[in-house]
Design brief:
The chain is an alpha/beta fold. The protein is built from 22 helices and 27 strands. A hairpin with a 5-residue loop joins strand 26 and strand 27. The chain starts with 12 loop residues before the first helix and ends in a 6-residue tail after the last strand. The N terminus is likely disordered.
Length: about 775
């Protein structure tokens, strides 16, 4: 295919570049979107839906050492309205001291002094009676008088009497649900651990945090050590006893001994109630139960940490980039399956890492990237495909139409789509016309011809192939293996006849079982890029040629035996002493007989040079030249002619038939001896040369004879042509020697030429290619 300027261009290269560029743009846009969604709160609500579903899968039995002492509705009904006087709390603490729990978190904000200072002092004394008791504090943001916050802590002396003060702040998500907490809040160097962190350390025996109830410095609060709460269950899931039962001593001490006790409000109207992932439409969770779930998470080692930014980005981008890679590597159907699988895998991986790895990787950003990139890429791929198809159809329409006479006229296009349809329709018609042309041309071939794919399966067959393989129709041969068809005609065919891996390009003769002979020729079928796409296999019936060859062999036998025998007999008879024939007549008859013998020998040699298979071997041309000179020594020495050889120091290795090449050199030197005057000189030399850009050797044979005119040189190598004798000496010959030499040299891939002028002798130069890798 070529463009308007006729310059060849690889098909589809510009389209591939365009697809690659658009893939890169889509990848960059999708990557930027996923990163934005990962680090913003845009997808938080969708991620919370997944988190809440996973929370319901994590429901389990709570840690047995956690017990809630609830300020419930029954306690309020029996002990009176809230808030209760300090004496109620003091009495409860005294009862707890008798039961002997491991530690107590008294989740009640005691931030206002009692009207009776003695009551606060009594409560402070009760805080010191038994196990460590931790009290909550909180913050008001913003604080008064422009402060960043105000610290809301228990009043004195209650705050100082507590074993520790821990913050109980909660973090609301955008939907008002509590899912996370911060174990530390910091104001500069001042740190407030969470209240449940005190209980955890009391249980494990770790050192308690240093008190941190000093006045605030006015800096902004920083929240640290975030965690996602792994809820053990819905409201009412933890072991709970009523405040009033403990206060009246109705709870067995064993129920509380060595336990972690949380005291807090669960009654209606106390305001300390929250929505959680396990809260249903009508259920909310009290603050003390929320703290119990947080403590259970810490004790059970089920703390779920939000993913670090790098890990979150890698998790969100991995499905996207796998899908993008699939767009370049796989077909659309497999890409659809891969896209669906990646979507499921993103959610499944998030769930598995959450449940077993204790890291929360929100999957919505990854899903959003997949949901965006697949339709976007599909649209861009269709757009690019449409543009490429339109471009190729335009280029195809500008190419010369081999069958323009068959083209059907079309009306002008009405819009872009109609223009594409017109181009497509025209291209399809041209393809169909070309297909019909190929089929008609194939069926018009006189030889059985098959077109196969690279594996040897028949794609197209002509009518001659139908007759050769006795098929019902050419279409009946389609899809059949080439080896099977060859076996029908030639059962003992050599393996390379059908196996393209042994000999892709092949010319071979096959003998059929019915006596016919075929010449099988297999040539490659190339596509537009020049790559081999299949094979063209032609079966030429050479039975008549083989018969003619046999007839030729019989004629040669006639010449070599039946014609030579009478001539030899005549020469023998003339040499008999008792013949009695006149000497002049006998001499003339002998001359004619010798000429007839020479004619037969030269004709046989010429026929062999032009038709026989050569016995090729590696030869040193210098050795062959010396052998030819030695063979003619009797003739040259009889006339006193000196034959010299030059250039034999080097080695000139050629691929040749020794007997034919030797006979060719003998003919040339014999001609030189015949036409040279007595006591003259003949020079035979070998020199390096080139032939068609390849290294070669030139063999020149120069004599001192009468020379040749330009007209004589022009017809020198014609059959039965003899140069006219000059001078008194007559030279016999039949005019086939030089034709034989020319045939031998050309069959060896060489050249022969003659340079001469009248009175200056003649030089015959033959050039043969050298073997470049002699063994």
């Amino acid at each position: 295919m070529s463009d308007d300027g006729g310059t060849a261009r690889p098909p589809g290269r510009s389209a591939r570049r365009r697809v690659t560029a658009e893939w890169a743009l889509v990848a960059l846009a999708a990557t930027a979107l996923v990163l934005f969604l990962s680090f913003s709160r845009v997808t938080e609500r969708a991620d919370n839906v997944v988190f809440d579903a996973l929370a319901s899968l994590g429901v389990r039995a709570p840690e047995p050492q956690i017990v809630i002492v609830a300020i419930d509705n029954r306690s309020l009904a029996e002990l009176g309205r809230w808030p209760w006087p300090r004496q109620r709390h003091t009495a409860l603490l005294e009862q707890l001291a008798k039961a002997g729990p491991r530690a107590v978190a008294y989740d009640v904000l005691l931030v206002e002094p009692d009207p009776d200072p003695a009551a606060d002092a009594a409560l402070a004394a009760a805080l010191r009676l038994g196990p460590p008791i931790f009290l909550p504090l909180t913050f008001e943001v913003p604080g008064r008088n422009g402060a960043a916050y105000d610290l809301v802590a228990p009043v004195e002396p209650i705050g100082s009497a507590a074993a520790g003060l821990g913050q109980v702040n909660v973090e609301f998500d955008a939907d008002g649900v509590i899912r996370r907490a911060y174990l530390l809040e910091r104001d500069g160097d001042q740190v407030w651990p969470h209240l449940m962190e005190f209980l955890r350390r009391a249980w494990t025996g770790e050192a308690l945090p240093a008190p941190a109830a000093q006045p605030a410095r006015g800096k902004a609060l920083l929240r640290e050590s975030p965690m996602l709460i792994s809820f053990a269950g819905p409201p009412g899931h933890f072991r709970t006893i009523s405040f009033v039962d403990v206060l009246r001593g109705e709870t067995p001490p064993e129920f509380l001994r060595d336990k972690l006790v949380l005291v807090g409000a669960t009654g209606d109207g106390l305001g300390d109630r929250y929505a959680t992932p396990l809260s249903h439409h009508t259920e909310i969770m009290s603050g003390v139960e929320l703290q119990a779930n947080l403590l259970d998470t810490l004790l059970a080692g089920r703390t779920v940490r939000p993913a670090q930014p790098g890990l979150l980005a890698a998790f969100s981008l991995a499905p996207l980039w796998l899908a993008l890679a699939g767009f370049l590597l796989f077909r659309p159907r497999l890409n659809l399956v891969m896209w669906a699988g990646l979507s499921v895998a993103a959610v499944a991986a998030s769930a598995l890492i959450h449940l077993h790895g204790r890291i929360w990787l929100p999957p919505t950003a990854a899903l959003a990237g997949l949901l965006l990139v697949y339709p976007l890429w599909s649209w861009r791929r269709l757009e690019a495909t449409s543009a490429y198809m339109f471009q190729e159809l335009q280029a195809f329409s500008r190419e010369p139409d081999l069958l323009s006479a068959l083209s059907r006229p079309r009306g002008p296009p009405t819009d872009v789509i109609d223009r594409q349809l017109v181009l497509m329709h025209s291209a399809i018609e041209r393809a169909r016309d070309l297909r019909r042309l190929v089929l008609d041309a194939l069926h018009g071939l006189p030889d059985a011809t098959l077109v196969t794919d690279l594996t040897g399966q028949v794609l197209i067959a002509n009518r001659e192939a139908e007759a050769l393989f006795h098929a019902a129709s050419p279409e009946a041969l389609t899809g059949r293996p080439l080896a099977e068809l060859i076996g029908l005609v030639v059962p003992d065919a050599p393996p390379e006849a059908a196996d393209t891996s042994l000999a892709p390009t092949l010319e071979i003769e096959l003998a059929a079982r019915d006596g016919r002979a075929f010449h099988l020729r297999r040539t490659p079928l190339s596509d537009e890029t020049g790559a081999t796409a299949g094979w063209i296999v032609r079966f030429t019936d050479i039975s008549a040629l083989k018969a003619a060859g046999r007839q030729r062999e019989r004629i040669l036998e006639l010449l070599t035996h039946d014609m030579r025998s009478p001539q030899v007999s005549i020469l023998t008879l003339l040499g008999s002493p008792g013949l009695g024939a006149p000497a002049d007549l006998a001499k003339r008859i002998a001359g004619y007989a010798r000429r007839t013998l020479a004619l037969a020998d030269n004709f046989v040699n010429l026929a062999r040079a032009e038709g026989d298979q050569y016995a090729i071997e590696l030869l040193d041309l210098g050795d062959v030249l010396v052998e030819a000179v030695d063979d003619l020594w009797p003739q040259s020495s009889a006339r006193g002619i000196e034959v010299v050889t030059m250039g034999l120091e080097g080695e000139y290795v050629v691929e040749a038939d020794r007997s034919l090449l030797t006979r060719a050199l003998i003919n040339l030197i014999d001609n030189a001896v015949k036409f040279s005057p007595e006591r003259s000189r003949i020079a035979c030399s070998l020199t390096p040369a080139t032939l068609g850009g390849r290294p070669a050797v030139a063999c020149a044979i120069s004599d001192q004879g009468p020379g040749l005119s330009a007209a004589q040189i022009g017809s020198l190598f014609q059959r039965f042509h003899r140069a006219a004798s000059q001078g008194e000496r007559r030279v016999d010959g039949v005019g086939l020697g030089l034709s034989f030499v020319q045939a031998v040299i050309e069959r060896h891939g060489g050249e022969i030429a003659c340079s001469s002028a009248p009175g200056e002798g003649a030089t015959f130069t033959l050039i043969l290619p050298l073997e470049q890798n002699p063994i």
